[in-house]
Amino acid sequence: MTVQFLGTGAADWKGVPESFPGYRYFSSALIDGTLLIDPGPDVFISAARYGVDLSGIRFIINTHSHKDHYSAATVEKLTAAGAVFIPLKEGEFASLGNHRILALKGNHGTCPDCVHFLIGSGDKVLYYALDGAWLLYEEVEAIKNARALVAPGTVPTAGKPVDMIVLDATIGDVPGDYRIFEHNNLNMVREIRQTLLPHVDRFVISHMALTLHKPHDELSKMMEPKGFTTAYDGLTLDF
Ligand SMILES: [Zn+2]
Ligand SMILES: [Zn+2]
Predict the structure, then answer these.
(1) What would the mean pLDDT of 61-74 be, rounded to a whole number?
(2) How far is the CA of 108 from the centre of ligand 2 (A)?
(3) CB within 5 A of ion ligand 2: which residues?
(4) Distance 156 CA to ligand 1 centre (A)
(5) 11 in the Ramachandran plot: left (φ > 0), alpha (ψ -120 to 50) or beta?
(6) Which ligand lies nearest the alpha carbon of 27?
């Protein structure tokens, strides 16, 4: 499975000049060149900047309707080019091309319809958990049972049901920020990793807020020894 990060920023990057060092577009990811997660307003401009080919997109799925994750204009343009938008609600399953996808409720108070995606393709499994604070109990259960749910009959290479998880890390290391009730801070993602280590092989953080984080290089150096890859725009991960 290939995950291309078109954007890794939170909503507060709006209006920041793209020349800003370590600039982040709004969060969006392209899976195996065919499945787009979150048709936000920056998809085309980011793809142009990082040389990502959008012409293979067949299906579009959306975590939630916040404006940094969903743009009607982006959906319109992609569907006019032949892609199909599949709105998945909590608990719904879809088999789209090579991908088996289960939507689970995310813990994201200002958008109660928010879903996260468990995605299987062949013997690979991804969990995409933006936006949201603490994974909900049902999500953890789905992660533990991921093989049966989206990759039946497969044996995980690393012996863990999920190969890679992308976690919301909006809040950084800022103490006392009330938004932890709908986004993670770095202490929370560290706790989540420690608990999910038996079930998840690789941990990635994304959806970083401009105003709550150190510059990317500093953040990345701090999180790498703690077992995290810090996503950045244009990053491609294969597993
Ligand atoms: Zn967001
Ligand atoms: Zn949101």
Answers:
(1) 98
(2) 7
(3) 66, 131
(4) 30
(5) alpha
(6) 1
Distance 84 CA to ligand 1 centre (A): 22
Q: What is the pLDDT of residues 142-191, one digit of tens each?
A: 999 999 999 999 999 999 999 999 999 999 999 999 999 999 999 999 99
Distance in Å, CA 155 to ligand 2 centroid: 34
Give the closest ligand to the alpha carbon of residue 69.
1
**Radius of gyration of the chain from its Cα atoms, rounded to whole angstroms:** 16
In the chain, where does DSSP find H-type helix? 43-50, 72-80, 137-144, 146-150, 186-196, 216-223
* CATH architecture label of 2-231: 4-Layer Sandwich (3.60)
CA 131 to ligand 2 centroid distance, Å:
5
Please tell me whether the overall predicted TM-score, pTM, comes out greater than 0.85 for this model: yes
Give 74's contacts (C-beta < 8 A, 6+ positions apart): 39, 40, 41, 43, 44
Cis ω on the peptide bond leading into residue 177 (within 30° of 0)?
A: no
Domain ranges within the chain, ordered by starting residue: 2-231
pLDDT tens, residue by residue, 2-61: 999 999 999 999 999 999 999 999 999 999 999 999 999 999 999 999 999 999 999 999
Find the length of the chain: 239
- Look at residue 139 in the predicted model and tell me its pLDDT: 98
What pLDDT does 191 receive? 98
